[in-house]
Amino acid sequence: MNQLSRRAFAGAAAAALLTGCAGSHSPARTEADRSTGTPRPARHSAHPVRAAARSVPVRLLVPAIGVDTPVVKLGLAQDGTVQVPAVETHDRAGWYRYSPTPGQTGPSVILGHVTVGAYGDGVFRHLDRLRRGDRIVAGLENGTSARFEVTGVRTVAKADFPTKAVYGDVDRPELRLITCGGPRTGDGYRDNVIVFAVLSPGA
Questions:
Q1: What's the rounded mean pLDDT across residues 82-94?
Q2: Three-class DSSP labels, the chain
Q3: Could you give the CA distance from residue 42 to residue 162 in angstroms, rounded to a whole number?
Q4: Which stretch, 47-51, 110-114, 138-142, 185-189, has highest mean pLDDT?
Q5: Which of 9, 14, 27, 121 is a good FRET partner for 81, with 20 to 30 A between their CA atoms?
Q6: 15 touches 86 (CB < 8 A)
Q7: How far is the first Cα of the chain from the last one, in angstroms, to the nearest whole number?
């Protein structure tokens, strides 16, 4: 591992230790969905929308909770779990680069912190306040944007992370926003907060 890769992995590991956000699950797992909370939306849409061309997200806006953040790319940590954004003063959201880009068919996954250690609140600190119908806008590298509508918000125990519901195949463009939630447990949090959203008609 070169110095840059080692530094990136160390940053991801530190973030997971400080906040526990999104660093404890692997998209390769296929455990059953045993979580609690708002049920996941149906797989099929009554109003089909046209999928967008592939373009990497560079910005995320969630007006209902005051989020306006740049988006960085995330991959996998050495242990096969999803990386998390670096813990720093100017906290940013991160797009899991092995998921579809926002607007493509499938679940596009964006992660963010609820807290960032000594720096205080994270970019997704109010994610659990979102409600069905709230708007999410992903600004894309090609100058366009993909607009989504929230269909459900769930708080799940990390031990029961619903990998299939989050990363599994769907036949329409969808979005997942993930952060930590629930009570603090040592240096992290017990739960994950997961927002499910679908591409808006005419987006």
A1: 82
A2: CCHHHHHHHHHHHHHHHHHCCCCCCCCCCCCCCCCCCCCCCCCCCCCCCCCCCCCCEEEEEEHHHCEEEEEEEECECCCCCECCCCCCCCCCEEEECCCCCCCCCEEEEEECCCECHHHCECCCCCHHHCCCCCEEEEEECCCCEEEEEEEEEEEEEHHHCCHHHHHCCCCCEEEEEEEEEEEEECCEEEEEEEEEEEECCCC
A3: 15
A4: 138-142
A5: 121
A6: yes
A7: 42
CA-wise closest residue to 71 among 118, 125, 108: 108
Tokens at 60, concatenated: 């995320």
Distance between CA 170 and CA 107 in Å, rounded? Answer: 7
Of 2 and 134, the structure prediction assigns the larger pLDDT to 134
Q: Quick one: 10 exposed, middle or buried, by C-beta within 10 A (0-12, 13-18, 19+)? A: exposed
Query: Could you say which of 1.10.3720.10, 2.60.40.1080, 1.10.10.10, 2.40.260.10 is the CATH number of the domain covering 3-25+53-199?
Result: 2.40.260.10
